[in-house]
Structures are given as C-alpha cells and as structure tokens.
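Please produce the structure of this protein holding zinc ion.
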Amino acid sequence: WELTKKKFCFWSGPEEKILATLADCTRQSPINIQWRDSIYDPFLKPLKISYDPTTCLHIWNNGYSFLVEFDDSADRSVITGGPLENQYRLKQFHFHWGAINEWGSEHTVDSKVYPAELHLVHWNAVVYPTFEEAVMEGNGLAVIGVFLKLGEHHEGLQMLVDALPAVKHKDTVIEFDVFDPSCLIPSCPDYWTYAGSLTTPPLTESVTWIIKKKPIEVDENQLEAFRMLLFTSDGEEEKRMVDNFRPLQPLMNRTVRSSFQ
Ligand SMILES: NS(=O)(=O)c1c(F)c(F)c(S(=O)(=O)CCO)c(N[C@H]2CCc3ccccc32)c1F
Ligand SMILES: [Zn+2]
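Below is the modeled complex.
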C-alpha cells in the first residue's frame, strides 16, 4: 500500500465494513448524523466565514453537478475557526439533489433526508501548495454542508437559478462575476463536524466536514430548476441531472461532534 498509497473505497452490501477496514477506508462520507450520539465539544470555536464576492469566476456543468468556482490564488475568500487548525480557501461550491423532494441530500440527520444539500469546498493553502495536493491529505479539505428544505423562495439562490438554463448541458460554462455564497449559509452558528471524505472520485479521506444544523428554505420552482439540468452534452440523448448523491457510508470508529448543546 505504502508504495502506491492507492486505495479503493467503493463497495455496497453487507461485506462493505469488512472490505473498508481491510483497505483502511475508515472515514468515508456521507453518513447519517445521529443527533443523540453526537458529542457536544465546548472547545469548538465559532466558524469564521469571510468571502469576497468578486472572487467568483463562473458556473459550470461538469456532468456530475453544477459548480460555482472561485479564484483561490490568494486568501480572499476563506474560512477559519470551528474545528479547523488552519485557514482554508474557498475553491468551489456545488449541490446534490433528488428527482423528487423526498430525497436528494447526501448526509441525513436521524435518518431524515432533505431534498438537496449545498457543499462549499475549501482547501488548506497554509500547509499545501495546491488544491490537488490538499485533496490527498487528511487535513487538506474543509467542506461546509448546508441542507436545503422546501419552503420560502430564496432570493440569493434565485441569482444562481436564473443562470442555470445557460449551463443546461455537460461542459457548458458561463461567467458569473459577483456572488457572495454566505447568503446561502444559515445565520444560526450551530453545526456538527466529523472526519470524512470526498463523496465523488477520488473519494479521498481528506475532508473535515462541517454540517450546519439549520437548513435554508428554497421553493419548489427553485428545486425544479436544478432538475432541468442535464448529465449529458448537447446532441447526446438527454439524461436529467438528478439523484447525484452518494449512498450513506458506515460510521466505523468515528465520533460526530456538535458545536451546540
Ligand atoms: N461532495 S464533495 O464535496 O466531495 C464533491 C463533489 F460532490 C463534487 F461533485 C465535486 S466536482 O468537482 O463536481 C466533481 C469532481 O470530483 C467535488 N469537487 C472536488 C473533488 C475533487 C476535485 C478536483 C478538482 C476540483 C474539485 C474537486 C467535490 F469535492
Ligand atoms: Zn458535494
């Protein structure tokens, strides 16, 4: 293993825990967060978020999700505090959602599934020279997860929704000059945090997950707008971009900490 440091963490079925242990894939994501099993940690600091809206670059459909990418060449959009030892730079955010409102999120809370989940991906530019290197290291990434629930119209999200028709097909991109993603993060400071992984290839166990307790509310039309995106490129047989979430992974020997009692 040492030589290649390659490991393969993708199974499902009863033997997954044994195989995961053999391949030491012991911190995969997403997981179900059992509220009563989470441990309040009084030493957890408040998460400090400071984004510069002008670091926003573009929105693109990469055939898995739609992502909004940021200029991460300097410490202009960063998070620090919370469970983090260093400052992390915002690289991109993206969403996961279902074909219908009954499912779509990656994490669940007491087995409750939300219709969608926002992930803001940050990397440890204090310790690692590039994002690609940070992706391979245990403390390389920090992802803020925010649940979306069906409810009131979300003004901030609508700016993204209005741009989606322009990125309907895989590998389409449009410029997106100014956007402050903190409008998508609930003001309630409460979160859970645990050591996990990316939920897409390379599935590396490099993510400190910070899952906000409070969801944001979005309306039906806004969720429907996500579902009109396509996994497929222009000219291919259309496949709607829905159900782009990974199944729940075994908790193994992990504790989920909460920032609140
Ligand atoms: N749920 S998640 O937070 O684990 C997560 C995703 F779910 C997801 F879809 C993506 S992606 O960029 O759309 C697809 C490439 O992996 C990323 N992107 C990251 C992962 C690897 C990588 C490499 C270059 C740029 C961005 C990313 C991701 F971190
Ligand atoms: Zn994600």
